[in-house]
Amino acid sequence: MSLLVVGLSHRSAPVSVLERAALSADAQVKLVQDTVAAEPATEAAVLATCNRIELYADVDKFHAGVAELSTLLAQHSGVGLEELTPYLYVHYEDRAVHHLFSVACGLDSMVVGEGQILGQIKDSLARAQDLNTAGRLLNDLFQQALRVGKRAHSETGIDRAGQSLVTFGLEQLAAGGAVQDWAAGRRALVIGAGSMSSLAAATLARVGVAEIVVANRTVERAERLALLLAEHHGQRPTGGEAAVTTRAVPMEAVRDELTRADVVVSCTGATGLVLTAETVAQAVEGRTGRPAVAHTAHPAGKTGNARVSPAAGADDNCPLDLAAVQPGFSVMGEAAVAGLDAATLEQHAAWVDNGVVDRRERRTPEADAELITALAATVATGARIPERRRPEPPAERPAPFLFLLDLAMPRDIDAAVHRLAGVRLVDIESLAEASADAPMAADVDQVRRIVSDEVAAFGAAQRAAHITPTVVALRTMAADVVAGEIARLDGRLPDLDERQRGEIRQAVHRVVDKLLHAPTVRVKQLAAEPGGAGYADALRTLFDLDPETVAAVSRAGDSTDTKGRPA
Fold first, then answer.
1. Active-site annotation holds for 105
2. Strand 423-427 relative to strand 402-406: parallel, antiparallel, unpaired?
3. Whose CA is closest to 428, among 440, 441, 412, 445?
4. What is the pLDDT of residue 513?
5. Considering 50, 105, 267, 318, which one is annotated as catalytic?
6. Cα torsion through 462, 467, 468, 469, rounded to 10
7. How far apart are the first and last CA of the chain?
């Protein structure tokens, strides 16, 4: 077994890098195909979720495999290899198995114990099977990962250690209150109709929202999801509450629906923003009848608001709206330029360097200019830089009336909308921050023991399977020797009757079987232990077995190996 995984996740890379490295469905297919076409790899599968991108392969050379898989990830993600490399992790053989089993159990998830990852692993295997890039190793690995994940959820309380990303996100929107109380009677807009959006819609229906509107580019998919929700959640279990109503709308109707919605959940495969700050601000204005304002925190506990306006600064040469900049931050600093595109950043860097504005902090123009230049370099390939947030006491903000949950990667909703008064945004980045401090359940230790046991068992089974073709070839050679000797005996003793020939044939077979039984059983046991891969080579050398014969047995085993769909 030469299993190799190269990837990045929320544990190794910032959200901004994960956003840019996100792979579309077509890119995932091309990545897998190019991987098996590369020299070091014979099998490949990609596991891509909202917070991880991992490439699994069976390789014949470790260093060449790492170099090739890293290069392919960089090429297909569009992030330069030099920039991507610091965020990549590499696992090999047993460590790679341990990693996937931990992922399947939810131990490596942003929300520990969430079960959504099992469906994503299942989809990853199905895709590799459709593309014929999953051979015996990856089929066995991913099938066993699914079984280990299901075992962890059935034998432990890992579900109590965390929830699905959707549930966790809704808890963050509810800000510590009961989700059912917070959701009761609200109107929800779900953007997208994929697996995560479907889970979000079902969760919203279960916690008690009054209406769910599904928007999708393919209206037929939105209609199917709305119909499914109506069938399963059209009546409350208690019978005393109003049933949830569902509708499907095209994406063009999202702007209008925003003015009616209380809760918005977005998870699409779009590469650009689905909801810009301007769109949300217009929805707020349409809902309240008043212009949208950006909330700002003032010193001494005072609060205030600044009108959301285009980036036409107080100074003619400044591309910022200086009135909207939070006091306490330099107008030339990182907070001031959050969300600007690359061209505007370059303009702002030049403006800072010229020292036009009266500084309100002790920071030097040179330091600010250096910072802005660095930010411009960071944004060069990504077009925008991530929002830099300043914590604000919850009591200082107006009570929110529009709640946004962004589960997409790259993000669907402009991070700048969190500054709008009356709006609360929770996205992948804020979920990662919140989950970092989430308490770990005692069941996590039990799941870790399950993973360790399953990794040992999987490794032993793979090592034992590796020697099986050699053992089969040895027994085949012995059977050929017996057949040759019996044929020679027939020629030398033609007067033997059939009963006598049968006794001789049976006696010779028994002798050969007894001679081979102990060494073949023992070599399988030894091969199953760590470091036992060399026993197959020793067996071939000792009995002078033809390598091509062993390879033929292995190919025959692969051809009869059932590659069923993941359960």
1. no
2. parallel
3. 412
4. 84
5. 50
6. 120
7. 24
